[in-house]
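User: Fold both of these, please.

Assistant: Here is the first one.
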Amino acid sequence: MAPYAPPPPLSRRLVTLTLALAALVSPASARKIPASVTPISRDLYRPSDTLLSEIKALVARNPDRLTMDTVRAGNKGYSAEMLVVTFNHVKKTVHDGSKIKILLSFGQHGRELITSELALSLLYILTEKRKIAGVDLSSFEKILEHLVIKVVPIENFNGRKRVEAGEICDRRNGRGVDLNRNWSVDWGKKEKDYNPFEEDPGTAPFSEPEAQIMQELSKSFKPHIWVNVHSGMEALFMPYDHKNTTPDGAPSHLMRSVLENVNHRNFQDSCLVGSGGGAVGYLAHGTTTDYLYDIAKVPMPFTFEIYGDEKASTDDCFKMFNPVDKITFDRVINKWCMAFLILFEEGLRTLPDDQVVSQGALDNWVPMGGEILERNMDQKSGGENGKLEGLDLGMQELKTYFRLFMLSTFLLMFMFCSRISKNRSRDSDEQSTA
């Protein structure tokens, strides 16, 4: 592994801004989330409900490529709901089992609105061929036939609602936990500059329903590539976040090679590339990416940081994390949509064949704990799919009734046998007495 090189001057300024924001809300003064000088740009950023409605409409228009699940989980009086969209280019010539599986999560931190806008734009490009200026997307069409992509547009919906209600600088979920500190690898460790309003890890690993849903999705889907999308700077990160080194061996070299190629092809080598813990300037414990590499064994887990304004003041966090003018907004969206297309191509080219293992059907997933509220809304009302769903529900009811029947039969037999045993014992006692 090449020795770590110091960040370029722009990155140093971004790191300084990030640390200054942490200092602004340090434990001594962090009794409330500070306000942002710049408000949410309503002409650029859709409200969360509007954004999700637009995605659902997109799914309804493209049933041959998109499917959708809405999942809910909860505990201790707190619940979370999450939309999961699956892109699977239907081609009989490419079997699902040989496809590269990619999981993309956006909006893990509530204040990073630009990430969810990127998710929507990427879905448009995948399905309705929305154009990127100066790019011929037809060259990527063949690549998409070999991919199954799951997209979580807003991982932290409750936290996003808090931001839209006025807590613009808040990154936590609906009960004040940082979802990117709630995973189990090195969970709960606090650095000297620990700030609960930035990094509260929760009461235990996976205490939060949002993290539980994402953990179960990673177990069920078993992605080959994972990207957790954030804003605050421009960077392409690989593990680790909780220490300032990258993993050893060939897998680490493959990850670095993919990121360096994306950086060179799309960013002219201007992005930071390396481990999150080594490049950002501070260590993060209990992160999603470290769990997915160490525990879930995802071959290529990445963190993409897609935007940061190094000139924004530390009390203007919306501007720090989100573009506030149309030209910059469009540039960020187009540039990072292109980055994902290049990532898909690089991943397909780079992943060893022995890591692409058939996992069966990939369109839908069944959470181990969370409740599926809706599935494929656009297909519910008609045709063969509706009949099959009805048949599945009917079979489930029959199985339930059969179990209840067997249980009640067993209980009746047990009571009957007990009564006979008692009668025989009483008759025996009476004969002995006589």
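And the second sequence with its predicted structure:
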Amino acid sequence: MLCRLAFPFVAITALAAAIAGCSSSTSSGSVESIKLQGSGASFPAPLYGRWFKEYSGAVNGVRIDYQAKGSGGGIKDFIEHTVDFAASDAAMNDEEIGQVDGGVVLLPMTAGSVVLAYNLPKLKSPLKLSREAYVGIFLGKISSWDDAAIAKSNDGVELPKLPITVVQRADSSGTTFVFTNHLSAVSEEFKNGPGVGKSVNWPSSDKFIAAPKNDGVTATIKQTPGAIGYIEFGFADQAKLPMANLESKAGKFVSPSLDNAKAALAGVEMPADMRAWLPDPEADSAYPIVSYTWLLCYPKYEDTAKADALKEMIIWCLNEGQNSSAEMGYVPLPANVVEAVTAKLDSIQ
């Protein structure tokens, strides 16, 4: 039986007992471990890596292997049943869900900001980018850092006469989905051009370059003077890359801080299917590009012990794991979302 207790130690002890009772033993009497295989989003990968390592260290007999290959890759693996769970920043759309034999249980686990990190070594003041400016950059219409559309939001700042190099994702990416969902919400031209997707047709230009996963985009920005790209906040923070303050729906320039990300999430109600989007949050202090990120689980597992181990791991992440979210640059789930996700675990058997 699944234990839903407030104290992680008790839940972990219960899991260890369940594993001992359900797993087969070797001839020497040792318990075989349960391995949970997952793949998908790179957006939450640093946090998931920490969670899974700490959980495996705390619970004897459970090992978790997670490969960050991008949301699209994780969804593909999940559809093909080559993993026990997957992760995506784009959840799954109806067409994708329809391809999964047995269906899917979507569980938001954390949230984070997609930031515009840049490489302008001589710029001392935080860069401010209006909606006109950052949409124009990613449409390929603004190609120099001293463009008037950028300069008018940065009074007194000496902007370099330097070409803008845009770094995009090379893989099928939930981060790209979140970013293009926002750009399409604020710009009809972007919506009718590149549009929304895990992969989109960016402008054809030698100043648009592709790199794989969040860490690849981060490294490329860091190595390329004049570069700008979209990555998860924690990657930019760890790499010590500056991040632009973006114009919000309320017309204010907002920094990608934890509090401003929380302000964006505050107005979101979680629906029954757990797919909640906020492409353009309205609160005055809301950072404009924030998203939940999801685990994808099957409703039915042939191995009962594996199903129980997966659910206990998720419970640990929803409770003990949330304590490290902010430290890693992510937004801890609101209490009402933790409660809703915990209840949704009844759908997994």
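The chain has two domains: 8-112+291-347, 113-265.
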